[in-house]
C-alpha cells in the first residue's frame, strides 16, 4: 500500500490515531456514565486501562503487544497488569541505579542480557519472542504510545479551550 503523508486516509499512523481517538472517547463516555467519581488513583488506572484497550483495539491483532493487551482485557486483568507494570518499572529503574559492572566481558554480557530481559518486561507480549522481533514490536509499540499521547493531549487542549 502506498502511503501519502498528506492524505490522512492512507497514512497508517493517522488511521491508528483516528481509530484510537474514536474508541477512547467512546470508552470515556461510557466510563463517565457508568461509574461514580472515584479516588484519583483508581480513576487514573481506569483511564489508563481504557487508553490501552483503545490503542490495542485500534491497532488490531496484527502485533504481538496488541494481542497481549487484548488477551489481558478478555481475562479482566488489565487493571492489575498495569499496576504490576508500574511496580516492575520502578524495580527495574532501582536495579539500574545500583550501577553497571565494567571491565569484565562476562559482566558486560550479563548486563546485555539483563537489558534485553528488561525490554521484554516493558513491551506487552515480549516474553516469548526472539530478539529481532522484540525490537520490531518495541518500535511499533513506542510509535503507538507517542500517537496515544498526541491524541490525548489534543483532546485535553480541546476541552481546556472550550
From TrEMBL:
Quote any Pfam family the record assigns. Answer: IBH1_N
Q: Where is the IBH1-like N-terminal domain?
A: 15-76
Q: Does the keyword Transcription regulation apply?
A: yes
Does the UniProt entry include the keyword Transcription? Answer: yes
Which parts of the chain span the membrane according to its record? none
Q: Which UniProt keywords apply?
A: Transcription, Transcription regulation
Biological process (GO) annotations held by this record are: regulation of DNA-templated transcription
Q: What is the protein named?
A: IBH1-like N-terminal domain-containing protein
